[in-house]
Amino acid sequence: MNIKKINLKSIRIDGGTQSRVSINEDAVASYAEAMTEGATLPPVVVFRDGADDWLADGFHRYHAHNRIGAVSIEADIRAGTLRDAVLYSVGANGKHGMPPSNADKRKAVLVLLNDAEWSAWSDREIAKLCHVSHQMVCNHRPSLSTVDSEKPAERTYTTKHGTEATMDTSGQKDAAAKKKAATKPEPAAEPVADPELDGLRESVTVLADANDRLTDRLAVVAMEATEGERTAAAVLIAELRAENRILSVENDAIKASRDGLLVENAALKRQCESLLRKVKRAEQTA
């Protein structure tokens, strides 16, 4: 790696290389505070094309340095174009630091799907690069009906021997278009108002946002913690997990005992019902 300190003002952040939806100001403040207390943050990643230095990873660290008035920042400098920086950025957040939110993941996927070259990659290739599920890419891939005319009728793939080859996909597109034309669209279902379901969806959204904020804060805290604090935390977590396993075993034993009592109770109820029927028959014949 080519790591050196470079002037903050020489770094460009206006090339669309920020793959997150927005900057987390709390994280920037936490990083800035940590640096004023002597913490050293990992270097940012910059792609240098000979004329400009494009920031590809480390936007929160970049803004934190600006906040404390730093003149320079430690950077991992790599040779490459703006497109190289964009391509690197879509997968950078899934490797370290604050985990990306669902909105961040969607943005990264759409950066590739909305590009004429990168959108020709398979869903699995895009998912692997963006550190998301294959299904997420499938759900966000634009309809082929609006982009077929702009995309080449070929797809590049890697063979089992490690060489690149191309596949003519024009026939597949024609077949898909015919199948779509022959399929009679079903009428759209009328939306049904369900206040309870709407409330549940809103609660899920609120919880997801809260989870993202907590995850970001945990990442910041982990960075600020000393080695001794991290070791103590790891020991505590291990003890809690061991205690949880013991409680799980005890809970399973209680469940088994409860199930046994329920079986016995059911048998006693059947015996009582049988005795009651015999008493009634005896009363009727008396």
Describe the structure.
The chain is an alpha/beta fold and 286 residues long. It has two domains: 3-151, Conserved hypothetical protein from pyrococcus furiosus pfu- 392566-001, ParB domain, CATH 3.90.1530.10; 227-286. It contains ten helices and seven strands. The chain has helices at residues 25-36, 59-67, 82-92, 102-113, 123-130, 134-140, 144-147, 170-182, 195-224, 227-285; strands at residues 3-7, 11-12, 44-48, 53-57, 72-79, 154-158, 164-168. Strands 1-5-3-4-2 form a five-stranded mixed sheet. Strand 3 (44-48) and strand 4 (53-57) form a beta hairpin. The longest helix has 59 residues, at 227-285. The chain is elongated, with a radius of gyration of 30 Å.
Concise overview:
By secondary structure, this protein is an alpha/beta fold.
CA radius of gyration is 30 Å
Number of domains: 2
CATH topology of the largest domain: Conserved hypothetical protein from pyrococcus furiosus pfu- 392566-001, ParB domain
Helix count?
10
* C-alpha end-to-end distance: 102 Å
Order of helices and strands: EEHEEHEHHHHHEEHHH
**CATH H-level superfamily of the largest domain:** Conserved hypothetical protein from pyrococcus furiosus pfu- 392566-001, ParB domain
Number of strands: 7
Oligomerization state? single chain
Tell me the strand percentage band: 5-15%
Mean pLDDT across residues: 76
- Backbone structural class: alpha/beta
CATH architecture field of the largest domain: Alpha-Beta Complex
Low-confidence region ranges = 143-151, 184-193
The percent of residues in helical segments reads 55-70%
Note the overall shape. elongated
Using the coordinates above, name the CATH class of the largest domain. Alpha Beta
Largest sheet: 5 strands, mixed
Neighbour order of strands in the largest sheet? 1-5-3-4-2
